[in-house]
Specification:
3% strand, 61% helix, 11 helices, mainly alpha
Amino acid sequence: MRDADTAMRDSQGGRIMNVENIGAAMDDVAAMPATNEDMERIRYGIERDCARRGTSAAMRDLIEGPFMRWMDAMGDARTEHGALDRADMMTIAAAMDRTLAVRDALIVSIILGEEDAPREFLLDFIARPMLPRNARRLEDLLGKSFRDAARRPGKARCDQGIDMLFDIIGVVPERYQVQPLAVIAYVLWWMGDERAMLCALRALALDEDCSLAAIVCSALHRHVGPAWTVEI
C-alpha cells in the first residue's frame, strides 16, 4: 500500500490527485466553484421544504432531476464529463450532506447498476430510507454482491461514477467534499484498488467522524474485501 503522500492519477482523464489537495487538482472542471454561502442557501431551502412538506416528499422532489441525470450517465459509460451541470452537482452534494441515504443510493448505483437496483427503487430509498422494505432491499443487494465471488464490478461503470464524484468535489467547498470522497474510497475498495486509502484518509482529514471512510480504512488494514477480490 502506498502511503498517504502518494499522488494518484485517474485511469481516464490523467488528472493528478494528491491526498493533501484532491479538490485543487480538479482544474479541468468547467463549472464555477460554489461558495459556502451558495451551499448554505441550498441547505436552508432543503430544511425549510422538509419542515413544510415533510422530509420524504421534499427530498424526492429535490433530488429526482439530478439523480435521474446521474443514472442516465451511469447507464452510458461513454458520457464525458459534464453529464451533471453545476446546479446538479451542488444539489447532490447538499442532499448527501443532509441525508446519508443519498450517499448509499449513489454507491449502489455505481457498484450494481440499474438491472439490480432500478432508479425508481433508489429514488424511493432516498425519500424513505427508514421504510423497512427499502432498508432490507438495499442491505440485501449489497450483502449478496459482497459475498458473490462471481460479481465483479464493471470497471467502466465504476470509473464513470468516480469521475462524476470528482467533478462534484471540484465544485463544492470542503465540508461538502467529505461524503463524495468517502463514496469514491468505498468504490475503489470494492474494485480492489489500493488508492481507496488515499480518498478515505482525505475524507477523514476533512471530517474525522466520517464513518464510511473509517470503515474503508479498517477493511483495508484488515485485508477485507468483496468475495471477488479473494478469487483473483
